[in-house]
């Protein structure tokens, strides 16, 4: 990697102990065809179980991971950070409530609000709006069996052709869920969550239903909130080769926003909210209803998936203005996987189409003390996305496959103006993006792989780009494209696991911050940028048989090295891109007893401050946090945990927004929470 001198001794030492928190429960990698999940403990044909999902995803010659629920359910899992924090290459840091600043391989760093450049899915159904933005408030970690992480163009199967890839949250079915399960979690800052679920199968029919209620006063002033979330799916096996499933999801979230503050305020008065946020009662409130269906059919050597989905989302968002947005998104998908012998060699062919369209009624009003004032604008936005993809894996020798693929995306962004006092423009933009990929996957043995690939990704902008003080209308913003090179290896053995990837992405027209207003960033295109880094995971049974046979001392950790830069930019030269640290380390040392007891310390370490502006004039602050966790889970009816976070009560900056040029007075920083203790109890039949 270029500029590797910045790794330094600290990062090399961290790399030597890097690991993945979830790998110890991972099955061995076996070069087998797609698994018949219905023969594995009553699994669903539509929704594979965790083991089948891992084996399927590891047929990808690139950075992917499966996070099982065992990795996050015995913790105070409230946000997406708690789910993916041990996945190298993923940067998820809390802002307030359930919201987080999120990036995969440096994706979407210029997005100071909501999410861009990574597709969120639930059971393979898009959660993002049709123009690409997403919210983490609809995530409920108590609801999922496992979470799939596809980095970059490795998310081809979901039509997620962006730099960040896709995160797929998969709920249980009645064929792998408990008949009844409930839990209660509580702790510092007024946090309380209750959850219950039920799942069961009756011959060809099965169901799974889950719901949760959470409240939180928040660490900071004006950061409290409450949420109710529910999900359900109902499956019917028409024959042993045909299954259909209906999915429902509902969310009601009410969240106050404390706002970003100056660096000095974040480090000296971390509980303080920004005065305007309190005076005008800034909030982000969301009501969501989602319905989807998916059917899987096996036809000899081929498997066909197809389905429909629709989402109704209402965003009620008093901030600098009172935003009242209504999103109606809908779409369809189809996919075929065919595995057969071709010319004496195993071959796996995948083809699919995805449609994600929608309409948005975007109305804004003056914010008068948290109430709607006079209307300032009323817009109608119509995003459309049509993608098709092909991928073929040809095993030219029994354990080495050549993987080639191609995706095409046609996207439309159209806006009409009903009313405006702010000069909003009507217009239409179209984007036509071809994204080829090629790679090699080598199954060296039944428990480890080596892979490499070259892929192209493309991302059409959302309606949130352009406009504002930049005077660049959204329809003049170009699509962001990238060519990514990656090599890596992963393995799963009883006493050691690893996951190591090196990558470099050469990006054109990256959606970046060049003009700032209202403390936020109005995004236009950079010329050339580079994202490169190291993603390392490592798990090790350091000592076994300490007190008795079967116990062990297990080290889990994840290390991420980021080098994100402008490429000879006319304004910012080769400056670092703002918004993410050069290094991030997450590690835990657990003593595990065969009775189901485990306990040990953990750390979260950002060794270097990172810039928050493209001019590289203002930095965040480095930090090192430590905590402890104790768990009892013997796989039977009861399980429990107690967890302490930031036990040193360090004042630190958890995340930061970005702008083009910052000063000491710039309000960009979100303080992290102080010392906290949480506990939870789970019961299942």
- What is the radius of gyration? 24 Å
| Principal-axis shape | globular
Looking at CATH, which topology would you report?
Maltoporin, Chain A
What's the CATH superfamily, by name?
TonB-dependent receptor, beta-barrel domain
Number of domains: 1
The second-level CATH architecture is: Beta Barrel
Q: What is the CA-CA span between the terminal residues? A: 51 Å
Structural class: mainly beta
Low confidence ranges: 1-42
Helix content: under 10%
* Largest pleated sheet: 22 strands, antiparallel, barrel
Report the CATH C-level class: Mainly Beta
Count of beta strands: 33
Mean pLDDT: 90
Layout of secondary structure:
Elements: H1 8-16, H2 50-57, E1 64-68, H3 80-84, E2 90-94, E3 100-104, E4 119-122, E5 125-126, E6 146-150, E7 166-170, E8 181-187, E9 191-202, E10 205-216, E11 225-239, E12 242-256, H4 263-268, H5 275-279, E13 283-299, E14 302-318, E15 321-342, E16 345-368, E17 371-397, E18 400-420, E19 427-445, E20 448-459, E21 480-492, E22 496-508, E23 511-517, E24 520-525, E25 528-544, E26 552-566, E27 583-592, E28 597-606, E29 623-633, E30 638-645, E31 653-656, E32 669-671, E33 676-684
Parallel strand pairs: 4-7
Antiparallel strand pairs: 1-6, 2-3, 4-5, 6-7, 8-9, 8-33, 9-10, 10-11, 11-12, 12-13, 13-14, 14-15, 15-16, 16-17, 17-18, 18-19, 19-20, 20-21, 21-22, 22-25, 23-24, 25-26, 26-27, 27-28, 28-29, 29-30, 30-33, 31-32
């Amino acid at each position: 990697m270029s500029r590797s001198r910045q790794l330094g001794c600290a990062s090399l030492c961290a790399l030597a102990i890097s690991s993945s928190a979830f790998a110890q429960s991972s099955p061995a990698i076996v070069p087998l065809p797609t698994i018949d999940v219905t023969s594995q403990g009553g699994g669903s044909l539509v929704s594979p179980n965790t083991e089948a999902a891992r084996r399927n995803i590891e047929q990808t010659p690139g950075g992917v991971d499966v996070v099982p629920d065992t990795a996050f359910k015995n913790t105070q899992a409230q946000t997406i950070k708690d789910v993916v924090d041990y996945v190298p290459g993923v940067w998820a840091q809390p802002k307030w409530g359930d919201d987080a600043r999120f990036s995969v391989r440096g994706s979407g760093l210029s997005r100071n609000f909501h999410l861009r450049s990574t597709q969120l899915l639930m059971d393979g159904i898009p959660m993002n709006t049709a123009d690409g933005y997403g919210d983490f408030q609809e995530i409920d970690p108590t609801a999922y069996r496992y979470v799939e992480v596809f980095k970059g163009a490795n998310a081809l199967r979901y039509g997620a052709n962006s730099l960040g890839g896709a995160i797929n949250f998969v709920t249980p079915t009645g064929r792998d869920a408990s008949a009844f399960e409930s839990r209660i979690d509580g702790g510092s800052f007024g946090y309380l969550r209750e959850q219950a679920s039920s799942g069961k199968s009756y011959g060809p029919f099965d169901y799974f239903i889950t719901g949760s209620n959470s409240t939180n006063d928040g660490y900071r002033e004006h950061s409290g909130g409450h949420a109710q979330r529910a999900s359900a799916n109902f499956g019917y096996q028409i024959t042993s080769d045909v299954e259909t499933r209906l999915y429902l999801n509902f969310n009601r979230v009410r969240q106050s926003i404390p706002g970003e503050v100056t660096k000095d305020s974040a480090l000296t008065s971390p509980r303080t909210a920004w005065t305007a946020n309190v005076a005008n009662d800034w909030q982000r409130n969301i009501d969501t209803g989602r319905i989807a269906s998916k059917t899987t059919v096996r036809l000899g050597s081929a498997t066909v998936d197809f389905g429909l989905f629709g989402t109704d989302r209402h965003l009620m968002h008093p901030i600098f203005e009172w935003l009242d947005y209504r999103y109606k998104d809908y779409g369809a998908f189809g996919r075929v996987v065919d595995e057969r012998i071709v010319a004496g060699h195993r071959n796996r062919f995948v083809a699919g189409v995805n449609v994600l369209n929608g309409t948005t009624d975007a109305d804004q009003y003056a914010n008068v003390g948290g109430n709607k004032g006079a209307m300032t604008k009323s817009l109608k936005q119509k995003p459309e996305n049509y993608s098709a993809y092909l991928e073929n894996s040809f095993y030219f020798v029994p354990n080495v496959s050549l993987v080639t693929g191609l995706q095409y995306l046609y996207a439309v962004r159209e806006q009409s103006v009903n009313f405006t006092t702010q000069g909003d423009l009507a217009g239409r933009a179209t984007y036509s993006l071809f994204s080829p990929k090629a790679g090699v996957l080598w199954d060296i043995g039944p428990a480890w792989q080596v892979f490499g690939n070259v892929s192209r990704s493309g991302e059409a902008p959302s309606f949130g780009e352009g406009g504002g003080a930049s005077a660049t209308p959204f329809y003049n913003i170009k699509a962001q494209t990238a060519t990514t090179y990656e090599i890596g290896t992963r393995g799963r053995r009883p006493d050691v696991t690893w996951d190591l990837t090196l990558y470099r992405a050469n990006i054109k027209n990256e959606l970046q911050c060049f003009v700032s207003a209202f403390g936020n960033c109005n995004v236009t295109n950079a010329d050339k940028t580079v994202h490169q880094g190291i993603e390392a995971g490592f798990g090790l049974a350091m000592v076994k048989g300490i007190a008795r046979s079967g116990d062990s001392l297990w080290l889990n950790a994840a290390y991420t090295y980021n080098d994100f830069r402008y490429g000879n930019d006319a304004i910012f030269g080769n400056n670092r891109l703002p918004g993410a640290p050069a290094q991030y380390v997450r590690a835990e040392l657990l003593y595990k007893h065969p009775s189901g007891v485990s306990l040990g310390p953990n750390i979260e370490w950002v060794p270097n401050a990172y810039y928050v502006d493209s001019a590289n004039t203002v930095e965040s602050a480095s930090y090192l946090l430590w905590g402890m966790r104790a768990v009892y889970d013997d796989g039977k009816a009861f399980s429990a945990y107690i967890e302490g976070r930031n036990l040193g009560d360090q004042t630190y900056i958890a995340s930061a927004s970005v702008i083009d040029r910052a000063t000491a007075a710039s309000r960009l920083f979100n303080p992290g929470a102080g010392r906290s203790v949480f506990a939870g109890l789970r019961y299942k039949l």
